[in-house]
Amino acid sequence: MLEIALRHAFEGFMLEAEFRAPPGITVLFGRSGSGKTTIANAVAGLLTPDRGRIAAGDWVLLDTVQGIGLPPHRRRLGYIFQEGRLFPHLSVRQNLRYGAWFAPKGTPREDMGRVVEMLGLGTLLDRRPGALSGGEKQRVAIGRALLSAPRLILADEPLASLDEARKAEILPYFERLRDEIDIPVLYVSHSASEVARLATTVVALDAGRVTAQGSAAAVLGDPEVTPLGAREAGALLAARVVAHHSDGLTELDAGGHPLFLPRLGRPVGALVRVRIAAHDVILSRVAPAGLSALNILPGTVHSVRLGAGPGVMVALDTAAGRVLARVTRRAATRLELVPGASAHAVVKSVSIAQADVGIGGDQPGEMLV
């Protein structure tokens, strides 16, 4: 269990955040200036808060009441930065061994061969960082962090400096890290897609305070939680791969309803996470017919949240989970979209990007709201 409680005053800004999170990837999610990096710095020992406690299980890094405050080099952290920060004069193999060199003697550590296999580094071991792509450098940085025998891994927006293709390359490795390695990860991000794919627990921050905490499905499916604004709002559904069809579509089972997406590289039976952006959902009060859209999820309106402009956020409870739809206030009035009303969510298959589909790290029943 990761336990963090911090209070620190800056000029014009007060951080007052407290949360506990189970094993897995805990994502600090919010706008720039919300306090994400301040929390990460406090965990790393680069900032001593006015008051606080930081612990990973029985490993106490900071407790201002008891007078405990481990220096950074004794905190047993693996740090993954935005850039790989590899030693340019060392090979990939030597950079990985550098992480292992800092592991305390007698401490259980990850096997280097397993880490190399998990991160796909076998063909890169003799190269130097200058001959690696951005995605390859980040894979080496992940491996170096794992081999340092950390009690906790900090990942400070590790994909922020990568283009979309490199992000797509790296995300599966973080999914494997979440599902295969028994080390808690504190991950800083302002990307809703990253949160949807990776998070075991989401801690939403705004102005230095925790505004919501829970599973990725619960937090992203809450219309009241919009850390990045309405344009980034969306819901997270759990689904299972049913079939791959000859026309290039993959069929999923989402709560008993078929969901068709462009072909996924996952085997039949695999559990996946699917993020559906609110602006990609159309609502209908009656079962639509004669549409090109293949994905239609019937449900009941849970809530309607008015925005400052002409838009409203409608939360629709379906058998697949909670779906968010961003529609105009005029449309919501015309359709009489009020809590309890029946409606259908319509989603185009091609509107769901590959980056918004990830490997399922939870059981469906735990992910659905």
UniProtKB/TrEMBL annotation:
<keyword id="KW-0813">Transport</keyword>
<keyword id="KW-1278">Translocase</keyword>
<dbReference type="InterPro" id="IPR050334">
    <property type="entry name" value="Molybdenum_import_ModC"/>
</dbReference>
<keyword id="KW-0547">Nucleotide-binding</keyword>
<dbReference type="InterPro" id="IPR008995">
    <property type="entry name" value="Mo/tungstate-bd_C_term_dom"/>
</dbReference>
<dbReference type="GO" id="GO:0016887">
    <property type="term" value="F:ATP hydrolysis activity"/>
</dbReference>
<dbReference type="GO" id="GO:0015098">
    <property type="term" value="F:molybdate ion transmembrane transporter activity"/>
</dbReference>
<dbReference type="Pfam" id="PF03459">
    <property type="entry name" value="TOBE"/>
</dbReference>
<keyword id="KW-0997">Cell inner membrane</keyword>
<dbReference type="InterPro" id="IPR027417">
    <property type="entry name" value="P-loop_NTPase"/>
</dbReference>
<keyword id="KW-0472">Membrane</keyword>
<keyword id="KW-0500">Molybdenum</keyword>
<feature type="domain" description="ABC transporter">
    <location>
        <begin position="4"/>
        <end position="232"/>
    </location>
</feature>
<feature type="domain" description="Mop">
    <location>
        <begin position="290"/>
        <end position="356"/>
    </location>
</feature>
<keyword id="KW-0067">ATP-binding</keyword>
<keyword id="KW-1003">Cell membrane</keyword>
<dbReference type="GO" id="GO:0140359">
    <property type="term" value="F:ABC-type transporter activity"/>
</dbReference>
<dbReference type="InterPro" id="IPR005116">
    <property type="entry name" value="Transp-assoc_OB_typ1"/>
</dbReference>
<dbReference type="InterPro" id="IPR003439">
    <property type="entry name" value="ABC_transporter-like_ATP-bd"/>
</dbReference>
<dbReference type="GO" id="GO:0005524">
    <property type="term" value="F:ATP binding"/>
</dbReference>
<dbReference type="InterPro" id="IPR011868">
    <property type="entry name" value="ModC_ABC_ATP-bd"/>
</dbReference>
<dbReference type="InterPro" id="IPR017871">
    <property type="entry name" value="ABC_transporter-like_CS"/>
</dbReference>
<dbReference type="GO" id="GO:0016020">
    <property type="term" value="C:membrane"/>
</dbReference>
<dbReference type="Pfam" id="PF00005">
    <property type="entry name" value="ABC_tran"/>
</dbReference>
<dbReference type="InterPro" id="IPR003593">
    <property type="entry name" value="AAA+_ATPase"/>
</dbReference>
<protein>
    <submittedName>
        <fullName>Molybdate transport system ATP-binding protein</fullName>
    </submittedName>
</protein>
<dbReference type="InterPro" id="IPR004606">
    <property type="entry name" value="Mop_domain"/>
</dbReference>
